[in-house]
Write a structure and sequence with these properties.
This protein is of the alpha+beta class and about 150 residues long. It is built from 4 helices and 5 strands; from the N terminus they run βααααββββ. It has a 5-stranded antiparallel beta sheet, covered by helices on one side. It starts with 17 loop residues before the first strand and ends in a 5-residue tail after the last strand.
Length: about 150
Amino acid sequence: MSVPYKERYFEDYIVGETIEFGDYAITEEEVVEFARRYDPQPFHVDPDAAAKSIYGGLISSGWMTGSVMMRMLADHFISPLSSMGSPGIDEVRWHRPVRPGDRLRMRVTILDKRRSTSKPDRGVIHVRQEALNQDGDTVMSFKGLGMYKCRDAA
């Protein structure tokens, strides 16, 4: 039987495994509030201007979408027992606009993992992370690296 994600250590992650989780409702209020603070472009903060834009309506900042993804990862995937943070992400892509009323979920695929030779108490897990909307369309994706403690540090 597989160890639950929130209880996993480096050894418990299986290359090739895919998991889907989460359910996050995007609201107009959150889209506008986030964008006013961090990404105040007209198509994120002004419904009238957004309606006249190439998007035909208000859309979430891509950075908000990434933040929503991070929240779902923290709630459902990242182990508080073993996570040591991340050295970075690669290949960030925004595939489709995220709009108020959309519901997002995550799909994570474990691509690779390697135990550190210089620090044998940890390893790095390489994952593809995708946000999917209610229609199953990928709206954002990136590849990430996560550092995790090893259960057996010998």
